Amino acid sequence: TGIETDHPAFFGRILRLWDQTLTGPGVAEGSYGRELAGDLQDLSLDSVGHGTHVAGIAAGDDATYPGVAPGAELVVVKSDLLDAHVADGLRYVFRVASELGRPAVAVLTAGGADDPHDGTDAFSAIVDAESGPGRIVCCSAGNDGQANVHARVELVAGAVASIACAIPVPPASQAAVTARFAGWYSGADRMAVAVVSPTGVQTPFQSVSEGEPPARLYQVPDGDVRVVTPGPDPGNGDHAFLVELTASALAGPPTISSGWALRLRADAVMHGRVDVWALDAATAQLSGDHVRHSVKVAAPASASRAVTVGAFTTKVEWSNLVGHGHEAGFTLDEVSGFTSQGPCRNENPKPDLVAPGAMVAASLSGQSPFHVPYLVDNLNVLKAGSSAAAPLVAGLIALLLEHDSTLGPEQVKEQLRAHCRIPGREPGQFDPAWGYGLLDAEGLCAGVVQ
After folding, report:
1. Global pTM?
2. Measured between alpha carbons, how far is 321 from 146 in angstroms, rounded to an integer?
3. Within this chain, do residues 232 and 369 fall inside the same structural domain, yes or no?
4. Do 339 and 394 fall into the same domain?
5. CB 312 within 8 A of CB 389
6. Which H or E run contains 279?
7. Could you read off the pLDDT of 100-134 as tens digits, one per residue?
8. Residue 181 maps to which CATH number?
9. The 135-140 sheet, strands edge to edge
């Protein structure tokens, strides 16, 4: 979302800023947006506050709430958050760093669920390709830990399974809301998908059909259904399907329609597993026995060379700038409930580790809305999310690169894992929530100094 360029925590350290949302000639990576330097950087605003807070955790220079690497210099991209443009931003950061002869760690704290969750998608492939010696990408694991957005079924040939789902129904005076669900299964299997509406009407089972349009529309008494069943994915050879549900508007107040279901039929099976994700927790939820709270780390955090960070809770109580006490509903000294769990769909271990990410104080963008209970002073605010954990680790990686600018992602991960622990377990063990454990930052830095 950009950065507040005149925040004192970043004074004199923003080397380049590419605002993709402004009209301009663009940069080498894309002919859109505008690159800003000097006083012109003030034309770019962070009206959300997310980017400013992330930058403050990684590299803010504040007497009370300093970032991890307050001497680091910054290259900032304010993005429109299209995957292709975020990827352009990543290339831009590493190109500028190369021109300046510097190592760089890029922080990506945005993502979605419309991918295979195995690191083979195009976005993750770009992250892997751009990573290398002195070029590290640090990603947040996501914040779907408590959302019912993933379901898994295991089918034998001829079997049929139903996954219940709920979607919003707006009043007739408002625009319709479309809920989207994506499923993935092995390219060696043959599955078919249908939709059952709340009144019990089922669409025909639809499977991958050679030579026929992959997208088909169906009308049921409760709304509209669109099912897409394309051919094998070029990245991993697996099959995917997309289901879009648009409920008919009601005359009364908005409500939730929970009587929808996705039906899956196994026509030919070698593996039998089907994973389904609701693509936006705000507009769609899954329910029933098939819901799983695992396999929620999506692109770009699923990229194999990315350092993927989940959130851990180290603070639940605080006083705001006027001295009023507050408390958050998190469990102290545990993995934060909101952080997305792994592993990847192909069992690759993600997240890599966890770090403090609940109620972290860092730079406030004065151009963004705020809530007084979370203000700790006039320049800093508390936020929670894996987006707060990732920049903390990115700051530590910046310190590692200051010591050795040739470190690649594999060497960085090795050093991080050597200083991660899961309470009550032997070092080096992976857990879907913890990754390889909570990072001991003090031990990591002491090891580097030695």
Report:
1. 0.94
2. 30
3. no
4. yes
5. yes
6. none
7. 999 999 999 988 889 999 999 999 999 999 999 99
8. 2.60.120.1290
9. 104-108, 135-140, 307-312, 353-356, 438-439, 420-421
